[in-house]
Design brief:
Number of domains: 1
Pfam families: Zn_ribbon_DnaG (PF01807)
Domain Zinc finger CHC2-type: 9-95
Shape: elongated
Region (Disordered): 108-127
Protein name: Zinc finger CHC2-type domain-containing protein
Strand order of the largest sheet: 3-4-5
InterPro entries: DNA_primase_Znf_CHC2 (IPR036977), Znf_CHC2 (IPR002694)
Order of helices and strands: HHEEEEEHHHHH
Number of strands: 5
Largest sheet: 3 strands, antiparallel
C-alpha cells in the first residue's frame, strides 16, 4: 500500500479555507468583476462571464459550460499543473495569505492603518460594479502573469505566458466574429429598409 502525499485534512483546508474569489482575483489573475452585486469571473473553459461563486460552499460555477470548480481545480486548469503541483502551489499561497492577514491584523491593532490591500481592492472594484462593460485593456492587464500578487516566482512558467497569448487570441477572434455579425446585421437592415440612409 502506498502512502498518501496529502492528508484529507490538508486537502479540505486548501479547498475550503482559501476563498475561491480571492484565489481567482489575486493569485490566478483571472479577469473578474462585480456585476449585479455578485462576483463574476471569466470561465477558464468556455471564456464566458456566466459564472458565480458560492461563499458557503467555496465553489465557483460556470452556468454556460455547467462546470464546478474548487480551488485545486482552478489552479490545475489555469497554471496547467498536475494535482500534486497544484496542492503545493495552494499550500504556498495559503501560507503567504495567512502571513499577510496576520501582518494586517498587527497593523490594524496598532491603529496605524485599518484597511488591508484586499479590502481596498474590493472597494475599488465595487466602485465600478454599475458598469457592466470592461475595457479590453483592463482584461488584458489582468491576464498578464506579472500583475499577479503573492505568486512565487517558481510558478511563473512559459506555459502561463502561452496561455495568456491563447486567451488574447481567443478574445481577438471573438471581436472579429462580433464585428462580422454587426456588419451582417447592418447589411440586413439596409436591405430591408433601403429608404433609410
Amino acid at each position: 500500500m502506498t502512502k498518501r502525499r496529502f492528508t484529507n485534512h490538508e486537502l479540505h483546508t486548501l479547498r475550503n479555507d482559501i476563498p475561491v474569489d480571492a484565489l481567482i482575483d489575486k493569485a490566478l489573475c483571472i479577469p473578474s468583476r462585480v456585476a449585479e452585486g455578485h462576483f463574476r469571473f471569466l470561465c477558464p473553459l468556455c471564456q464566458e462571464f456566466s459564472t458565480a461563486v458560492n461563499p458557503e460552499t467555496n465553489l465557483a460555477r460556470c452556468f454556460r459550460c455547467e462546470e464546478n470548480f474548487n480551488t485545486i481545480d482552478l489552479v490545475m486548469i489555469i497554471r496547467e499543473l498536475d494535482f500534486v503541483e497544484s496542492v503545493r502551489f495552494l499550500q504556498d499561497y495559503h501560507k503567504s495569505a495567512s502571513v499577510s492577514r496576520s501582518k494586517d491584523y498587527r497593523v490594524a491593532t496598532t491603529g496605524s492603518d485599518t484597511h488591508d490591500g484586499s479590502q481596498m481592492k474590493c472597494a475599488d472594484r465595487s466602485e465600478h460594479s454599475n458598469n457592466s462593460m470592461v475595457h479590453i485593456g483592463h482584461i488584458l492587464d489582468r491576464i498578464v502573469p506579472s500583475k499577479c500578487e503573492r505568486t512565487p516566482s517558481v510558478y511563473n512558467r512559459p506555459a502561463q505566458q502561452n496561455m495568456a497569448n491563447c486567451r488574447i487570441l481567443r478574445l481577438e477572434q471573438k471581436v472579429d466574429r462580433l464585428s462580422h455579425q454587426i456588419e451582417n446585421i447592418l447589411k440586413a437592415i439596409h436591405i430591408d429598409n433601403p429608404s433609410h440612409q
